[in-house]
Amino acid sequence: MLDLATFRSAFEALPEPARSSARRKALDAFLAGGLPSTDLEEWKYTDLSPLAALPPAALLPEAEAAGEGIGFTDALDALNAAFAGGSTELRIAADTRRDEPIRPADRAHQRHRLHLERGAEATLILNTSGDGAFETVFADIRLDAGARLNLVRLNDAGADAHRLTRINMHLARDACANVVTVDLGGRLSRHDLNVDLAEPGAAIHLHGLYAPAGEGHVDNHTRIEHRAPHCTSREQYRGIARDKARGVFNGMIRVHKDAQKTDSEQRIANLILSPGAEINAKPELEIYADDVKCAHGATFGQLDDEALFYLRSRGLPESTARALLTWTFAHEVLQHIHQEDVRGRVTRRLLRQLPNSEQLEALQ
Amino acid sequence: MSTNQEDIQALVRNRTYSAGFVTDVDSETLPPGLNEDVVRAISARKQEPEWLLEFRLKAYRRWLKMSEPKWAHVHYPPIDYQAVSYYSAPKSMKDAPKSLDEVDPKLLETYKKLGIPLKEQEMLAGVQPQVAVDVVFDSVSVGTTFRKKLAEAGVIFCSISEAVREHPELVRKYLGTVVPFGDNFYAALNSAVFTDGSFVFIPRGVRCPMELSTYFRINERNTGQFERTLIVAEEGSHVSYLEGCTAPQRDENQLHAAVVELVALDDAEIKYSTVQNWYPGDENGVGGIYNFVTKRGDCRGPRSKISWTQVETGSAITWKYPSCILRGDDSVGEFYSVALTHHRQQADTGTKMIHIGKRTKSTIVSKGIAAGHGQQAYRGLVRVLPGAEGARNYTQCDSLLIGDKCGAHTFPYTEIRNPSAILEHEATTSKIGEDQLFYARSRGIAEEDAVSMIVNGFCKDVFKELPMEFAVEAQKLLSVSLEGSVG
């Protein structure tokens, strides 16, 4: 097993009051469980061992605990619990609408519990774009009957950033969640999104973009559990890999035994822009009910030659034409971000990664 | 509607397995258990050269260090590999009959019952289409038909044991080059204890004058069948090969772990079709064959082509991924599959397409049908390596669910490392619609026939890839296996 001493050292370097027994218990659970190995199917393409090689000073556990009470489900969850020092709890009261998006404080390690009561509406923006070399964000989100949530998760950290994020969502009757997740940067990023459609009528709309560049490695794992009849899921992910980057997508949709009338669709499209880049995608379906509509599709390809030719015949330099087509490919996902400041920021960052895209700055 | 469905479910339960009889012959069977002595005994019995014994022993030693794969979407109690007998042959085969005419009539009767044509005259008379058949009974090959006619064309078609004796240089050159002895747990086991199977060699530029076929039959109790098939198509040659299998109806599970290796050199084409109808167990999941098979084709030369077509209706558990290594530039790999799981059957099957050469193309069409408590999984891999400029893949996997107690799953892996690759993957899940059935019935078509029609329509893309006479058999098999089901 990997030597995880760096995590312990980082923890021990915290001031005395921060090293509470609850946090220490979580840390011990993580050290006992260890980092998941690539032998596990779930981690086949993503090797977390570089985390153990980070110096203790880069790990940045939070000196101030976020809240009381630490429970955890597995080793990585325990690591987040130990380093974040408890969860921030947030509750949106029944039938209230919160117009202003919730933007949690920018901490390296965040742990959130969000509960939308019956009929509540809110928007949550999770940003892991800080400068830290190692950040973890874990969130547990509960939607009661008829609640609605817009969630934007954004990761455009620098080239040395390591990020672990996990979002668990539980949707009750007729609850609805719209999720947009974007990964543009980082050295190593793993994002797990687990959605439980627990009661009839629940719906999830999921849009994801992953565009690793340089030596970056981005892994998106989504798991949608259709546990009740008459639930809907729509999932669209787009990947763009360039340079020596590697993108991983694993989308599992499981239709449980009694989840009749499930309506589920998953679309994955990928662009590989450089010879050294790689994308591994696995759209999975597990179906145990017979009266369901389930479809998934995955494509890999390059930019359309005819579209390129058309743009060039209109006087665009080739590199600009390529940038424009790449942007339109990504825009299919980005258009679902309704906060203009966030969308603008993501678009600018994406365009910066594309050569000769200055002329496109005005697009956004 | 619900009564309707119950009726149908009742019909489904009445499925019968017509190949489930036992042939009463005296057999010489090694006692159960596996150790180096057993491996040596099998090798000695087959009078094998030293290098082959070495190959077996290396595989056995590697196997000891390996563990059973657990990742497949199937569940079964642990297998006791020491309780299996690794060699069984009818005693009458010991005197090595010179031709089929000298073979024990009881054995010939078995194949007659199964509808396998072994009488060349009958076939020549036009009763049956012309197919050369190699029949394997437990651990030995009983005989091969049409040998003379094939020899005239330069084609070698015989059992692998015979090939080891008659053409050792060819076997040695190709054996284990596509599926190495340590490839996986079951392939290693097979490499250590394989008994019979077919060997096909098509020389340069020859188009095999007829379909070649092997028929595998497990008869003896507590035995496993570990056959090994090797097909080599030299430059510019062409061969179409069919494989069929059955076993008696028994309450114990029996193990079948085969290895099939195909080698296609420049411009060669191999078409490999399987109709797998091992005993599937009864409706409570008692008995049935564990079918753990490694099949792989190597498109070694430019412009070569390997095409797998399989109809999987039998076996309690199927673990099978016929694959293509597209090494030569412009080589083509194809995989067409119909897999049916019914009662308590479980299947985890699919393919791997490894694109290495430039402009390599692959097509995958998989149709899964799950009924009763059947669990059906498609597991496929499409890998495009950095050098595979212009690689192209099309994948379609559709599932049909019949009843609400079965499951259909899709696990398609894609690993793409070349920007010029174009891939499409599509999967759908559906059931037989009430309206489709209603329409057919309103036209006076019996419910059972309507279901059969719809299922056959669902599988048409695959059946049209089968040689004609096999396609007819496959359709029949499917309707027998599925009598009258709707979802």
TrEMBL record, chain A:
Pfam families recorded: SUFBD_core
Annotated SUF system FeS cluster assembly SufBD core domain residues: 108-328
GO BP annotations, alphabetical order: iron-sulfur cluster assembly
InterPro entries listed in its UniProt record: Fe-S_cluster_assembly_SufBD, SUF_FeS_clus_asmbl_SufBD_core, SUF_FeS_clus_asmbl_SufBD_sf, SUF_FeS_clus_asmbl_SufD
Coiled coil stretches, renumbered: none
Name of the protein this chain belongs to: Fe-S cluster assembly protein SufD
Organism: Solimonas fluminis
UniProtKB/TrEMBL annotation, chain B:
One GO BP: iron-sulfur cluster assembly
Matching InterPro entries: Fe-S_cluster_assembly_SufBD, SUF_FeS_clus_asmbl_SufB, SUF_FeS_clus_asmbl_SufBD_core, SUF_FeS_clus_asmbl_SufBD_sf, SufBD_N
Highest taxon above the source species: Bacteria
Domain SUF system FeS cluster assembly SufBD N-terminal: residue ranges: 147-208
Pfam families membership: SUFBD_core, SufBD_N
SUF system FeS cluster assembly SufBD core domain ranges (all copies): 216-458
NCBIfam families named in the record: PRK11814.1, sufB
Family the entry assigns: Belongs to the iron-sulfur cluster assembly SufBD family.
Protein's name in the database: Fe-S cluster assembly protein SufB
Source organism of this protein record: Solimonas fluminis
Record lineage: Bacteria, Pseudomonadati, Pseudomonadota, Gammaproteobacteria, Nevskiales
